[in-house]
Amino acid sequence: MAGIEDMTRIYDFEPSERSHSTCSPIVGLSVILRRYLVPVHTRRLEFEGVENFRDLGGYPTADGGHTVWGQIFRSDSLHKLTPSDLVAFERMGVRMVYDLRGDEERATHPNPFDSIQLAVVGQPRNGDRRTIDAAAFSAASDGEQLLRDLYIGMLLHSAPLFGVLLTGFVEPTNRPAVFHCHAGKDRTGIAAALLLLAVGVDRETILDDYELTRRYRTPDHQQDSLANLLALGMSPEAAAGVMTAPRWAMQDALDAIDSDFGGIDAYLTGPAGMTPSSLPELRASFVTKPAG
User: Fold this and answer.
1) Same domain, 174 and 49
2) Are 192 and 201 in contact (CB under 8 A)?
């Protein structure tokens, strides 16, 4: 999983050739390699109250470039930021926050700053989330299957919202930007996958990024989500399946972009409503090309 770990750039130098300087994890670490100062960025930004705040920079793209560090971040709910977290967040210079949660979630746990709401709908392709019988899910595999169905349903029901989100990233005055939901896994995971696909990141890397939630958002961090699912009548085993990050479920969603919508460009310029010119603009703004 090179390129996915916390320290996402790995250099083939002996430890004695490295000299570390001290700086905030918000801006990343710096190491001096021989006579050159080379930035080594951190995938996960460590806050006291938020567990799953991650930089989407540094991923290789099909054209030989990399996504730009420090420009677009994905996260779990930001209402948990502590006072010291808010100071660090302010220093990041974030210009735009996109909240993918619904009205009830926002009312219960409002963000501590202004944000744009894009309430992504979590419901299966052929159903209403209000008709989901949680008690019918008994095994962990049932919970994972529900995630898969919800992911594909999001692509269908919330396409215009994803189009607004990715179009917003094109405008330089909107970056750095953060988008988030509750856990930073499902609604945020689909949004991140669409963004990374759009700029040419390969699918295995996208799936690796999705699975990182399992490392950073442990069961200890999910007691509120577990309680909500159990209150709906879901079994503990099925609830555990819902709270994981099954690679196959996101893989099926990525496959559906091809089979159901004709590929990422057709999806974004069709159901998502992006203009054809916005796609190359997004790639130009979020991908750095190799020198030469």
Assistant:
1) yes
2) no
